[in-house]
Structure to design on (223 residues):
């Protein structure tokens, strides 16, 4: 595809449930990033993948959050035991390894935890 | 104090006016400076990307970086109703972008 795609676009779940959010980066981009955007705020960094490995997961808020990228392309962000405070828009971005600051974002997944 | 400060607005201007947006920051190590545009319920779209200090122009958009003052600006000339959106500044030392909260702009026809 031409851009970063994310599924689902909206996810409503109940407190305590498990959710998975998927990101498909721009073809050829080896770097992939997850950010979280709360209402009225800018995105906040969660995790950075270079290839298959998580090069920096310092932004993950706690051990309920985990992300994988097993084949170096599609990535899945996994949230266990969801809490109401997890409600936000989860954004995925990708870039080439040569220009890591030139990040292209997907449309996001709007997560609502009831 | 946040690492990147941005006035949330809102900012309302008539069509054809110049829109002036700015951000200040505290981390002197930032070297890469970006501006993103975000329409309602959409992902951020990269508008401008600059390295270090100076000016960069792209069509109706001009980005300025003053590292000595830790201050960056975006100017939109001949603004159009389609420019109505939230504008986010972002900056980094490497790959981890630090964003401002965004300024909401409305261009009135």
């Amino acid at each position: 595809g031409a851009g970063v795609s994310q599924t689902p676009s909206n996810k409503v779940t109940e407190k305590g449930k498990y959710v998975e959010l998927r990101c498909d980066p721009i073809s050829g981009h080896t770097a992939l990033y997850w950010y979280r955007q709360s209402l009225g705020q800018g995105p906040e960094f969660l995790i950075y993948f270079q290839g298959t490995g998580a090069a920096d997961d310092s932004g993950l808020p706690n051990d309920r959050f985990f992300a994988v990228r097993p084949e170096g392309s599609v990535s899945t962000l996994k949230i266990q035991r969801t809490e109401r405070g997890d409600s936000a828009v989860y954004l995925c971005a990708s870039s080439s390894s040569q220009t890591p600051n030139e990040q292209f974002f997907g449309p996001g997944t709007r997560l609502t935890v009831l | 104090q946040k690492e990147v400060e941005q006035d949330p607005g809102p900012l309302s201007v008539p069509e054809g006016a110049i829109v002036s947006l700015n951000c200040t920051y505290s981390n002197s190590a930032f070297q890469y400076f970006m501006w993103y545009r975000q329409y309602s319920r959409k992902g951020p779209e990269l508008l401008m990307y600059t390295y270090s200090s100076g000016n960069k122009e792209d069509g109706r958009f001009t980005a300025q970086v003053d590292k000595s003052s830790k201050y960056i600006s975006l100017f939109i000339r001949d603004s159009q109703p389609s420019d109505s959106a939230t504008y986010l500044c972002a900056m980094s030392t490497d790959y981890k972008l630090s964003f401002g909260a965004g300024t909401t702009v409305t261009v009135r026809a």
